[in-house]
Write a structure and sequence with these properties.
This protein is mainly α. It has one domain (about 5-55): lambda repressor-like DNA-binding domains (434 Repressor (Amino-terminal Domain), Orthogonal Bundle). The chain has four helices and no strands. The longest helix is centred in the middle third of the chain and has 14 residues, at about 30-40. This is Raffinose operon repressor. Pfam families: LacI. InterPro entries: HTH_LacI (IPR000843), Lambda_DNA-bd_dom_sf (IPR010982). Keywords: DNA-binding, Transcription, Transcription regulation.
């Protein structure tokens, strides 16, 4: 399920769908309610990994150690 499919179903832009789901104030309550209802009806779940990758924010910690014990 994508934002594009929700936008097409509701006749609004993908940007508006995204802004509604992310809680921006410039989206009317009526539009937000329509978007949320359609997203719920379609079982939309945001892909947090894809979002973080696109935004350049990946919450990960790497640990490197030169000390390795082999048996």
């Amino acid at each position: 399920m994508s934002l594009k499919a929700i936008a097409k179903e509701l006749g609004i832009s993908v940007t508006t769908v995204s802004r509604a789901l992310n809680g921006y104030d410039d989206v009317s309550q009526e539009t937000r309610a329509r978007v949320e209802a359609e997203a719920k009806r379609r079982g939309y779940r945001p892909n947090t990994f894809a979002r973080r990758l696109k935004m350049g924010k990946i919450d990960a910690v790497a640990w490197c150690s030169p000390y390795v014990r082999l048996r």
